[in-house]
Amino acid sequence: MNSSKPTLSIVPTSGWQAINLPELWQFRDLLTTLAQRDVKLRYRQTSLGVLWVILQPLLAAGIFSFVFGKVAKLPAPDGIPYLVFSYAGLLAWNAFSSTLTKTSSCLLQNANLVSKVYFPRLALPLSTVFSTLIDFGVAFVVMIVLMLVNHIAPTLGILLLPVWLLLIVLLALGVGLYASALMVSYRDIQYVLPVVTQFLLYASPVAYAAALVPAKYRLIFEINPLTGLLEAFRWSLLGTGHFPLAAVSYSAIITVVVFVAGAFSFKAMERKFADVI
Amino acid sequence: MSLLTPAIEVTDMVKDFRVYHRTFASLKSHAAALAKTLVRRESHTGFETRRALNGVSFSVGHGEAVALVGRNGSGKSTLLSILSRIYLPTSGEARLNGRMMSLLELGAGFDGELTGNQNIFFNGVILGLSEDAVAARYDAILEFAELDRQAMDLPVRMYSSGMQLRLGFAIAVHLDAEILLIDEGLAVGDEGFQEKCFAKIEEFKTQGKTILMVTHELDHIERLADRVLWLDKGVLMRDGGVDEVLAEYRQGYAHG
Lengths: 277, 256
Description:
The complex is a heterodimer of chains A (277) and B (256). With 277 residues, chain A is mostly helical. Chain A is built from twelve helices and one strand, in the order E-H-H-H-H-H-H-H-H-H-H-H-H. Chain A has one domain (22-28, 50-276). In chain A, 69% of the residues lie in helices and 1% in strands. The termini of chain B are far apart. Classes of the chains: A mainly alpha (277), B alpha/beta (256).
């Protein structure tokens, strides 16, 4: 029996709120429980189940290597097979887009929880990261197989791979947190986001190398913080290109800013969720 | 944590909801309103305010069982939701002294796709227990719910409302809360289970736990409550003993 009697004061709040990390820690089992539910339920009633985690990027890489490699005859750097090259790009891209898709829709999808049970709302978007990372891990095994089959040895740069992955996920989380909170009031966001994501897929060096972008578009191209991260990711994994130090530093700064801004806007909009949802 | 401080203390509670009317005469006015909305992040023209609670104050002592009555839309559930930390008040304050647990809706905090077994953990954790704490209570919850093992392996969406109530109530009473908020919880169970719930609530009362419940079943109130609060249109009409308030409430209801 819990003998301490905490006193809780419920009063109106306004403006920017601090993020209650001790409470989030107290609810840490909630993060893992939500993540487990995510994993348990995702591939129910599919006959191929978890295989989709591998098939989806493989099929997309197949299409990219046909369209970009065979039809458009774009070169993959350093003689790497186009399939391997685009699969590596998709590996990073999927970490971004699946984090963004899952976090942005998590409040609406859990509307019945949000409107009936109190818990730190931040747990919902944060918990989606687990299943994205599991997907990444599974798809990464295929990456290793592809590299072995094609005799591509990783360089020491692979040690930095977790850093790029972390930044990619944080960037997506930042945007996703903001989008999820906004989506509660403006359902328009759920129709806008897929269009933006689709645009970003082609505006970022996923299916092609950044080096192929003409010099006069370079600046606009590199405003997108994903550009540096995707190039760095592939540099770490396949040793392609050179290490994009300037682009990566820029991306890292933008990522941190976007993530912090996303988390605090989520917190600021949080108190309206149950009223509106 | 002195017993002299009330378990629940509500002061001048006001809650406004915004009711948006999103009807726009033309695409152009729609675009203009949208632009305004996006710039200011909220529209100052397209809604009106509905006051669900209007200056409600009361307190509930430790070990008291209090029932909230009032017709539909009187603000009972809004009040319970604020105390459950779902909504924030527009103004006023609520203080809770002690670990609070709320059961706002049948199956709230269940995921319909998860099995009964999985939902014991899912619901328990979402209500603030650690996984180990749920595991420690697991057998007691199963025993209280009296659902057979086969049912526990089915997704909860296949449960009848009575079965959901059994599981939800069984989890709720095993959370070791000192303050329980219950909204319409007991109406759907069969008689045997209702009896069990009554017994549990009476046991809670003897343990000094505090209960605030919303119900339309006046005989439940007569059996369980020490006091009744009567809300009408967001205003607290009466706060007093069960017999006197219910008598007035019945009369007020009859005269509608």
